[in-house]
Amino acid sequence: MKVKDIKNIKSILATDCGSTTTKAILIQKIDGIFQLTHRGEAPTTVEEPFEDVTKGVINSIIELEELSGIKILDKNKIITPSVEDDLGIDIYISTSSAGGGLQMMVAGVVKSMTAESAQRAALGAGSIVMDVLASNDRRLFHEKVKRIRDLRPDMILLSGGIDGGTVSHVVKLAEVLESANPKPRLGLEFKIPIIYAGNKNARNEIKDKLEKNTDLQIVDNIRPTLEKENLQPSRDKIHDLFMEHVMAQAPGYEKLMSWTDAPIMPTPGAVGEIIKQIATENKISVVGVDIGGATTDVFSVFKGIFNRTVSANLGMSYSICNVLAESGYDSIARWLPFEIDDTDLTNRVANKMIRPTTIPQSMEELIIEQSLAREALSLSFYQHKQFAVSLKGVQQERTISDAFRQSASGKTLVDMFELDLIVGSGGVLSHAPRRSQSFLMMVDSFKPLGITQIAVDSIFMMPQLGVLSSIHANAALEVFERDCLVRLGSSVNPISKRKSGNFELFEYEFNYENKKYSGLIKSNELKLIPVKYESVKITLTPKNDVDLGNGYGQKIHTDIFGGEVGILFDGRLRQSNNQLIIPNKEKLKEWYDEVKVLNFDSKSNDITKKINL
After folding, report:
1. pLDDT tens, 433-470?
2. What does the alpha-carbon distance between residue 29 and residue 16 come to, in Å, rounded to a whole number?
3. CA 223 → CA 84, 115, 158, 407, 482, distances in Å?
4. Is the peptide bond preceding residue 463 cis, with omega within 30 degrees of 0?
5. pTM of the entire structure?
6. How many angstroms separate the first and last alpha carbons of the chain?
7. Beta strands, E only, 18-121
C-alpha cells in the first residue's frame, strides 16, 4: 500500500467496476467519523468502442467532483494524496467484476472432499467456479479434456490427496490438464495460471507435467490431513494471480492498477470481506446475499467459518427464466394474491429475460418479480446450506447403521437458531418501493428461526467497503453501520410440533416509548409492531410444543431490535422441511396487509386499483 500513515486519512475514493456500471463513492472524515458524502456512477467501458476501463472510472469521478466541489482529477489522473481540503483525496481503492469477473475451474481427487475444499477456496476468493473436475466424477478422460478447452477459464486450482498420501490420483488429474493444454480467456500469448495445492509429495511429478506449458504456482496443501482444511494460501495466490494475469490483460486495467493504493479485489471477494468483518466485530453469525441479474451470491459466517456460494443461473433478469424452471409455476403462483395462468406468467418472465434492464411498470409485474425473487433467494440459500458443511471424510464415531449407510457427508454449518443477522443486497431488495417488501421477502426466503435481525444494503456499496476493510477496518465499519446498512427490524419465528389447525403459539411482552405491548400469537398469524432501531427488552413465552430457540416451552428474556419496518411476530406454520404453508389467497392478502407490503381495497374488482402502494 502506498499510504504510510493510516491515522491521517481523511478522504477515501472507492470505485466498483461492474459489468455494466462503474460506481464511485467518496468517504470523508467529518467530526472524527467516516461518512459517505457523495456518490457517482457511469457506464463501464471495458468493451468496444472504448476498451479502457479507466474511462468509465474517470466519468464516475467527474460526477463526484461536480457533487462534492473537490477537485480529484488532474489531466485524467487521480490527485493522491490530498493537497488541500478541496484538492485531491488521501487514498484510492477499487473492486471489479467487469469482463465477467474471475472465472475458474477447480479439480480434486475426491469430489466430496478435496475438490469441495478447492471449490470453497476459489469461491471465497471471489471467483465464479465454472466446473469442478474430480477423479470420481464419472467423466471419461477425453470428456474432461474437452470440457477444459471449451470453458477457457482464467485460471485452474488443482488439489488432491493429503500430505504423505497416494500421489497417483492427483498426477492423473495433472495429465488431464497437460493434454487439454488450456489457453486463458484473456491474453492469448500468456500461459494459463495453474495453482497446485495438493499432496506435497506429488509436487515434482506435477512440475514435470505442467511447468513447461502453464504458469504453475505451488502453495500449501488445501487438505494437509482429513481433519484440517487450509484455504488461505490458495485464496491469497488466487488474488495475486487475478491481479497479475486476469486484470493485467483486461483493457485499461494496468493503468487502473497503477492508480490504486491497494490491490484491486474481485467484487464478490470484497463483499465477503465486509461480511466477515461484521461477524468478527460484533461476534455474531451472519448471512449475506447479493441477488443480481444473472447470479445470486450467498455469504455466511457461522462459528467463525466463512462460506460463499454462487448460484450461477438464479438471477432476476438474464437468468430469470431459469428461476421459473427450477421452482415451477406452483411455487411462484403461491406468493401471488391474484390468479394467473401458467402461460401468462411464463410470457411475463420471458419478457424480463429478453429486456433485462427494464423495471416493473405495473403493480402485477412488481408482485410477480418479488415472488420470483423469493424463490431465487430460497433456492440459492438451499444450495448454500448444502455446500457450507463441516469437513467430509473426517473420522467420527458411528453406529452400525451409519456404517451400512456409508454416510460420509458433512453436517451443514448453517444453524438458523444461531443466525443473528441477514443482510440483503441487489436491486430487487435494495430498491423495493417499500422497505417492508424487502423485509418480508427475506423472511419468506430464508425462513429464519428464533429472533433474527433483517437489514439491506442501501445502495450496494458493500464491495467498496469490503476492499476498504482490508486496509482501514474502522473506516469501513463506520460507513457500513452509518450509511450502508438499513436496519429493517427483527423477525420472531417459532418451530411448532403441530403443522395444522388453529392453536396458540407464544405470548410476547415488552415496553417501548413508555407504552406496554403484549399479546398472543396464534397459528398462521402475522403481527407487525412499528419499533425504531433500538434495543428493547422482551419476554417471549412459548407453549409446550413450541420452540423459540431456548427449547420447547422454554421462556426467553432477551434484547430485541426494531428498525425501519419494526418487529414481526411470525406465526405462520411450516412443513417438516421448513417450507411455509400458505392456506389460500385470502390469508396471503391478510399477511401482506398486516406487514404493509401491499394495501388492498376490497370494494374494487380491478386488480390494478385493488392493490396499491
Report:
1. 999 999 999 999 999 999 999 999 988 888 899 999 98
2. 21
3. 51, 10, 12, 20, 40
4. no
5. 0.84
6. 49
7. 21-30, 33-43, 91-96, 103-108
